[in-house]
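Lab notebook: predicted structure, single chain.

Context: the supervisor wants predicted structures on file for every construct in the current expression panel, including those that have not yet been purified. This is the next one on the list. No modifications to the sequence; it matches the entry in the shared construct table.
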Amino acid sequence: MPIPEEVTGEEIDKDVRQELQSLPKTLAEDVAKNLVMVARLIDEDPEGAYGYSKVALRLASRVAAVREAAGFAAYANQKYSEALAEFRAARRMTGTTELWPLMADCERGLGRPEKALDMAGAPEVQKLDKAGQVEMRLVAAGARRDMGQLDAAIVTLQSSELASHAVQPWTARLRYAYADALLAADRADEAREWFAKAVEADRDGSTDASDRLAEMDGVEFIDVHDEADADVDAASDTSADEAETEDVRTDPDNGGADKAETDAAKAETDVDKD
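Prediction complete. Output recorded below exactly as produced.
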């Protein structure tokens, strides 16, 4: 797959670059460039990111960072079985538990919420940092909802992290999940309150909490660009109609035909009079 000239491979994290040092220099550079492309595209073009991840995987399948990147790319494309296999491989290579929540969510994606809940109660969760534990809580709540256990999902999300006024990178998503669960349980007033709190914490637009809140308040958004386009189209149609009318009035051929018909009618009238 083509790689832009400005991509050098130096853009990757230094820890990943260090992992690649086990490879021959030229190969390491090629792998690094493909990993950069995965990181660049995974949000906006997950299919493209997946393609670059497959190239990196073919070049260096024994590098944990490559297996992890391949897992993320597969996950972004909802290829949960493939993502789970790559995450497991990366975990075997590194021995870390960072990918545990993602692996559990892959189980959900594969229609196995019970397995995800088992993982939420495993000892590995205690080894996660705070962000990882919150992520695991979100996955567990999602698994409860998959199983139709709305009240249990709500209880799962109730935690000191949810109650905290401090804003962390995961705060908006946690509040959003809680609001969404409340709404699903027909607790609309509480849901609105938590959607509003999610908006307050959502500094980078990671959720659509503002849209959900507006929807609950009955606010309807009008796309200004679409409205402007419609006005332009309407104006164009009007101009076209006016131009067509003007053509009929000024067309010499048409005017001549009309005059001929008028003259013929006049002549016929004169004959009748005679």
